[in-house]
Every structure is written in structure tokens, then in C-alpha cells.
Amino acid sequence: MAVLAGKVALITGAARGQGRAHAVRMAGEGADLILVDVCAKVAPTGYPSATPEDLAQTERLATDAGATVLATRADIRDSGALRGVIDQAVDRFGRLDVIVANAGVSYFRPFLEMSDSDWDDMISVNLTGTQRTLRAAVPAMVAAGNGGSVVLIGSVASVKVVPFEAHYVASKHGVLGLTRALAVELAEHRIRVNCVSPGGVTTAMGEDPGIPELFADPGRAALFMASYNPLLDPPISTAEEIADAVLWLASDASGSVTGQNLILDRGVTVR
Length: 271
Hints:
The protein has helices at about 15-30, 50-65, 80-95, 115-145, 165-185, 210-215, 220-225, 240-250; strands at about 10, 30-35, 70-75, 100, 150-155, 190-200, 260-265. By secondary structure, the protein is α/β, with parallel strands linked by helices. The chain has a single domain (about 10-265), classed as NAD(P)-binding Rossmann-like Domain (Rossmann fold).
């Protein structure tokens, strides 16, 4: 039997990359889906932003995998827009069982070269946007009374330093802290809250052209490699590998797990 049969999952940042992998994986396991992506540039990333066409493609793939899908463009920092999406979804599906707070951005910027807007953009998308996603969606889960699973997407930067990304490190440390706080507060509603923290992933973000530019400076490259040195080959995970872990946390198979951080970093944090 499909492990998410009869359940409804919200996935943010769903247009491509990890979000698309989560959508297709959950659709194949019986879930109906609420897919959200801003499909616009929200920070000065070196990689291109997702497009409306990307979101439409994810919707097609998830539908082909068996899901009924509600896909919409919304900025996760916009509480009103998110509440509108959730209200529409609950009217259509009647419940909400899984939340995957996946949307986020990343780019390199040495701290001494970082502007106020660099800091503000990163924190507002990765941390505030995650908080607003949960504040909009969790009440529907509580009201349904079925319990549920919330999965926040952190990073290896949730537990260690990645040089030249102080703003990203701070945002992802915050995501892990939010995970642990909500695991305590939502337990009475039988809602589990966990974090998945990938290392490098084969997505547009993971293949940011800013990385080769960083490595063009030997000193900066050496500092980065001293901090980020995976044990496994290849040194970067696929989005589908991350989706497998998220599916497990979303399903009843992980029913005894809450407040935890599942690190999928190919051995970066071992040493």
C-alpha cells in the first residue's frame, strides 16, 4: 500500500530541484499535493530562479504519478497569500497531513563584503519565510485533528560553518532551532516536526556558478575545502536521495521521531 495514501502534503519551493523531487516521490506514494513557488527572483543568487513553466512541469509530473494537485505561485514571506492558498486547499482536499518547508535561497558573500540587503534577503526567505509557511499552514493541520508531520529543510550549514555564507549559516541554524521549538509545542496535537539537512545537492542552487568563482581565489578555496570535505564519492547527493529521506519523515514509518535533524551530507560532519 502507498505509504501516503489518503494524505495531503504542502510543499514549498516546488517548481524544481528538491521541491520537485519531493512532489513526485510523494505523489507516487499516494499523496495529493499543494505546490507553492514564487517563480521569481527574491535574492541576488548566481543561479537562475525557477519559472512558472517549471512549476507547471512539476504539476504535470506529480499528476502523472497519480496525485491531485493544486499548484500556485506565492511568496512564502507573504502571510496573507499563504493563508489564501491554505484556505483554498482545505476547501478542496478537506485536510492537511504533511508540510515540507523546502523553499530557500543560497549564495556566497564574504562577511566583510556583505550588504544589509544581502543579510535581510537571506534571513527573510530562509527563516522568516519558513516561519510564515508554518504559521499559515499548521493551524489547518491542528484543526483537522489527524496529527501530521512537518519537515523543514535545513542544511549542513544548520550544524557547522560554511565559509563565505554567514547569512545562510545563520538562517539555517535558525531553521533547526525552529524545528526543535515546534516539536515541543506541537506534540500535544500529535504533530511531529523534524529537519532534513543536506550537504551539496545536484540542483540549480547546488551547482551555483558562484562556487567556481570562489575557488578562483586559492586562499578562499583552501578555507572552503577545509570546512567542506565529503567522505563519499560522488561528493554531492541527488535531489531524489533527499526526497527519500523526506518521504520517510512524512510517513508513519517514522512515527516515533520528532525534534530531530537528519543530516544527509555524505560525511561532511563526521570529521
